[in-house]
Amino acid sequence: MSTTVNDLERTVNSGLTTTVKKSQINFNQLFIDVDIENLISVILFLKTNDKCRFKQLIDITAVDYPEKEKRFKMVYLLLSHENNLRIIININIDEKTTVPSIVKIFPSANWMEREVFDMYGISFKDHPDLRRILTDYGFKGYPLRKDFPLTGHTEVRYSEDKKKVIYEPVKLDQEYREFDFESPWEGTKYIKQEEEKNKNKDK
After folding, report:
1. What pTM, to 2 d.p., does this model score?
2. Residues 88/43, Cβ–Cβ less than 8 Å
3. 3-state class of 165 per DSSP?
4. Per-residue pLDDT tens for 49-85?
């Protein structure tokens, strides 16, 4: 007999009791909210319990809510092949919180945690090699935080003088263009202006 998502919710709530702050089924997937101090025990339960068997870590990511006291939401996505079920674990943390690494439980978490560290600046305790993975050496800031400028802080270019790639502060020299919303069949304003000029020259 196959396990349904409703069966899974009952199993998780009875097995983890007060550890689960909230559980909800959406899109045939179970979402649970837990506290950061219970992360390891929850992950171990979901992986080893015979009725759960979440043996694959799909992803670890985060969401930034700058206006909230607990700024970040950590999100863990797990898959049970045996039951064909997915579970999403949500944990709210503040900017200074260090998250326990789950690399010893799921070795694939290594690069996933490094990505979260690189993009959001969230640190992981007991990670074997916590360093940036997507950005370059000496990169400043965390690109997926909402307060990170869309242009970034620096730009990269090849210098003919120095014969190497160099970093420079971002300079927005080009003026912002003004767009009109007329039909493309009628032509934009600057095309019309050029046509008028050409007409006047012919006269």
Report:
1. 0.79
2. no
3. strand
4. 999 999 999 999 999 999 999 999 999 999 999 999 9
